[in-house]
Specification:
Blueprint (H helix, E strand, L loop, with lengths): L9 H20 L8 H4 L11 H17 L6 E6 L5 E3 L2 E2 L3 E5 L4 E5 L8 E2 L3 E2 L9 E3 L10 E17 L5 E13 L12 E4 L1 E10 L11 E9 L9 E3 L1 H11 L5 E5 L2 H9 L10 H7 L3 E3 L1 H14 L15
Parallel strand pairs: 1-15, 8-16, 11-14
Antiparallel strand pairs: 1-4, 2-3, 4-5, 6-7, 9-10, 9-15, 10-11, 12-13
Length: 327
Amino acid sequence: MRLRFVPLGIVPILSLLVAVIALTVSARSSAAPSGVPAWLQAHVGDSDGQISQVVLERARALYLMKVAQGAVKNPCYFAMDATRPGDLGNGVLGRRYYVICEASQSFRAISSGHGGGRNLKGTVDFSNGKRCAKNFGNAMDSSLTAGGGYMTREAKTSFKGYYRTGAKQDVAFQRTFIQFDGEGEAANARQRVIGGHAAQVLHGMCLRKSPNSSHADHDGYVPFGKLVDYAGGRSNGCTSWSPADAQQIISMVKDNPTTLYIYPESRDIAAVASNRSQSGAYWNASCLKEIGTPKFWPRKTLEPIIAQYRKDHPAPPPQPVPICKGP
């Protein structure tokens, strides 16, 4: 028996090709570059509230690696883009800290502070403004943000003092701190006491007589101050969130560690500094225009400078906290 081949003709062949191409496009659309799910890829971009591609890919790779190692069971992970502006003006804060929960297809972008750095007057200035960070580093006592991979660790709640509310009631201020452990250039995060907490602090401290307080000292005094929210400001290198966001984040990671990836690393800073148009060298455009050229301060360079400055400018002896005036 001889098989007979019937020519398909040009029209059926074209139809077949169109169908194959359509199936290929459909398959590709269900998964984004580097395996990022399509629902998450929809949040990728360089506008406020979006996450830039390189930041997401590195944060996701860190998280998946720690999950595979059995170090993380938390269904959510974090990322931060410290090249973005922290202040958009008119009281609006930039959203550059990301809470990503792939199992529930949840993505949130919130505000976060960056390291303020320091100005060692007459020696060196590596300070940062409120809006954009130009200086980054991992030196002790530098108050700089260091990019890289982190793990959230133990939570420690500390009593800071009392403050008075609008209802003229005294409230105990207790702030929870989440310790971070870093890797690579951020490996000294624990020594630097780098972690996350609410962007709140007590200013103008004085001592008030309150012998019945469980926080009173041996003379019956408690610290008292004014509660200040600095969510729109800078930090000492830690990650700081608004009180409401901090409460949610801390509850997510308490006794259930996860990963945090902070961008940029020193290699990213070097790439941008050497050639802004270099392929893969990402920086937020508005901040890059404002700061000019970013700089990374390695600890081996900066720590001796800070140590010498401290030696040349010894701190004055600590003064006793004054007694509060008035009721």
